[in-house]
Amino acid sequence: MGLMASRGALIGVDITSATVKLVELRRAGGTYQVDSYAVRPLRECAVVERRIHDMDEVIDTLAQAVRQARPYARKAVIAVPAGAAITKTLALPASLNDDEIEARIQLDSDKHIPFPFSDVAFDFQRLGLNARYPDQQDVLLVACRQQDIGQLTEVVMQSGLTPAAVDVETFAMERAFTEVYRQLPVFGGEDDGVALVSVGATMSTFHVLCQGRVVYSRDTVFGGRQLTEEIRNRYGLSLDEAGLAKKRGGLPDDYRDSVLAPFLDTLVQQVGRSLQLYTTTGRQQQVRHMVLAGGSSVLPGLADYLARENGIAVSIANPLARMRVNRRLDAQALSRDAPAMLTACGLAMRAPP
What we know:
This protein is an alpha/beta fold. The chain contains twelve helices and 16 strands. The protein has three domains: 128 residues, ATPase, nucleotide binding domain (Nucleotidyltransferase, domain 5), CATH 3.30.420.40; 64 residues, Dna Ligase, domain 1; 133 residues, 2-Layer Sandwich (Nucleotidyltransferase, domain 5).
């Protein structure tokens, strides 16, 4: 039974500054089935700005997640942060085959990649003929440092999984967003945009997507950990106790007005500023809807506050909403964690190698 369930399945592994998340998806008819998942907290400073600083801690935490999830499959996909990857669309002669494209990229690497080619891992994908020049083809180039790939694959292997592929976070997020987009109401035209606001532990990221592709991004150093720190300082709790209290409730009566409300004010101002900056770029895609993701996206009142302040509909992401769920899983717990599973889900949705 386990071998049959694992056929074609992949495990998406998402390592952030606060947690390690994994989800196992397999194709089931025209959709996916969630066969296993886990979310485990990371010790503070083990990962800083998406960079691993404590390999032992990350490996141990992922191994705990694997033991908790008990996945059927072993093949895992992990991602480098968008800031660690270089992505460019190249226009090359349409007559070039894959081997010739690879040779051309190596020959012209100094034009596209700002570090020594000997340190680089790269891949490419044909995108089709160039819209303006039919004798040219568009080729998507993705490159990053070998050491980044090596570090991530080492984490996966030491945790008992098998690295199947290394992706880029942005691509994984776009892939998962196709599931979220199907849940949104019909609005505007096909060129209208959707704002995706991901509120993590230390960073908040504002994306605008049009036709499933990211056309604008902005990062802000502000996230849910600031709220956890304020809870800790005000009520004399440890960081773990504060995080648990934030998640489960049970805080004193003054929490909403004295702690939560100021945090929401700042977060909503940050999102509004990002929306204003996007508007000043003069892009054609008007934002008609906003989607919240990340661990802090479900804070009470946040979605309504953002909707009032920006005059647009706001919903909370659940990339797993249309998927089947293995009967051994707690569907309610999975639904609660789903807004933070966007990247992990997108990684597991990648076509098996």
